[in-house]
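Predict the 3D structure for this chain.
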Amino acid sequence: VVAKWLSVTCAVLCGWLVFVLFARLFGFWVGVGAQLIAIVSGEFPQFSINAATDVFFLFVCLAVLVVFTSQRLSARWRIVLTGALTGAAYVIRYNGLFLLATCLLGIVLLNLFEQIWRERFQSAVLFIVVFLLAASPWLVANYKHRGSPLYNTNYLNMATEFYPELVKGEVNQDATRVLETKFQSFGDVLRYDPFRLIKQYPLNLYESLKQSVTGNLVAQLVGWLALLGIGLSLIGQRSKPLLLVLIAGGLYWLLMGLNHWETRYYFFVMVLYAGLAVFAAERWLELARAQGWLKAPAFAAIPVALVVVMVAASLSVSHKDVTEFLEAQPM
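Done. Predicted structure below.
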């Protein structure tokens, strides 16, 4: 019961953070539209009332981006808070490491805090120290029990994806138990058939991109408009916070390409798609008007109609999904 209430609370907070993030990037109404689409998309509503860590992990990921791009806090506080939150994300799920890379790139390469090189490296070191302190309870326990603070068995999930013939195409826990006798580390997985890994990985990335648009992560209209939104944002809206968010999405996609597809694994991508889709729905009209087209006030209703359609399409699918989920569960 406690886990379910925690998931519901995190889902509500995720909606608020989605609004804050995209209102900051693209404006108030984009934030509102992104929030509405995100909270009713795909399997997110189902997992919002499920005793799982998926929505909790998403909440921490969004909190990292919101705090890191905040202008109300000093650079030092933003670094400390996001370092702690990133450590928490890593403890919740190992793929939280994408946030570590994202924030370090934001500090050193994007120079989000407008610092000279020496200050950037000092900030990066501070971020890493806080990250390690936040994750230290797990790192220490892992070292005591497993002999390494970084020990994990995600390499078994990776093996099920790249060597399906060893487990008859299964990707569940029974499959990973079978592979425990064959692989003992990521190195074992990489050395087993490196040429297949090199060949298969780009295909995995393509399939995950395809699934993110045409699968049950978001409504297809949301997915296609989100891809358009990525291009439009790079043309004329290239702020440092926006680039940071796009880098975070790219790194997450690259990391998850090592694993099999499950919709719940991509909730972070779903949220980014929601914001970028609403931005695209608004931005195309701005670009047209800049060229002297569609000047009549009535054309402003088109972006609103697109957002309404995206929300309705998302809600129709997720409502059916939640209904089936509740009917299969004890009340």
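The mean pLDDT is 94.
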